[in-house]
Amino acid sequence: MITSPSYQAYKELFHSQYNDLCNYAYSFLKDDAAAEDVVQETFIKLWEKHRQLIDIPNIKAYLFRAVRNNSISVLRKQSTEEAGNKGFEWLAETAEDPDAKEVENAKPYYEQLVYEAIANLPPQCREVFTCCRLQGMTHQQAATKLGLSAKTVENYMGRALKLLRKYLQQYGLPVSILFLLKIFMPL
Asked: What Pfam families does the record tag this protein with (predicted)?
């Protein structure tokens, strides 16, 4: 394998593009280690698919696009994790707060607001949101169940989350409460 022409071409490509791709990934991630991870993962995926990708006319452009997309995916994942952590931090802060009893007493009010927010969604948005967030379905599973395309489900979810955020912000609830819906909502 190490002496095969495709491996040698892959090795040359790796050595010639690695630094440039790391710099490109760093421009998105602002973290050297994360940038290197993205580039290495991209090259691993390239090697796994190298037989299908042999006819790509501009492999350099393909690599830069793949690194860009993978960097954006990492940023999205980090953003989601940070938002979830903020929700748990908010819960922890309210538990440590001297007025924690007051917050605990307000929990039914929060639940009521979340129920109202969901009830106020347009019917199709509400149905998609219920499937994806409360029943834990993937977008594809919800699409199959509801007879929609996965992209349509994704669009409805985006719209539902936007409307829920707007509704909950009117009452001063942290938007991160949406990440905690499974805690509040029995299935």
From this structure: Sigma70_r2, Sigma70_r4_2
**Residue 186 Ramachandran class (φ > 0 left, ψ -120 to 50 alpha, else beta):** beta
**What does the alpha-carbon distance between residue 38 and residue 36 come to, in Å, rounded to a whole number?**
5
In single-letter form, the type of residue at position 98 comes to P
Alpha-carbon distance of 157 to 134, in angstroms, equals 12
Spatial separation of the C-alpha atoms in residues 118 and 127, rounded to whole Å: 10
pLDDT tens per residue across span 65-74: 989 998 988 8
- CA dihedral sign of residues 162, 118, 92, 186: negative
CA distances for 61 relative to 20, 56, 67, 187, angstroms: 12, 10, 10, 46
Tally of structural domains, the chain? 2
Q: For the segment 174-187, what is each residue's pLDDT rounded down to a tens digit?
A: 656 555 554 444 44
Which CATH number is 134's domain given?
A: 1.10.10.10
CA 177, distance to chain mean position in Å, is: 17
| Same domain as 137, residue 71 | no
Report d(CA 104, CA 85) in Å as an integer. 20
Answer whether residue 132 shows pLDDT above 70: yes
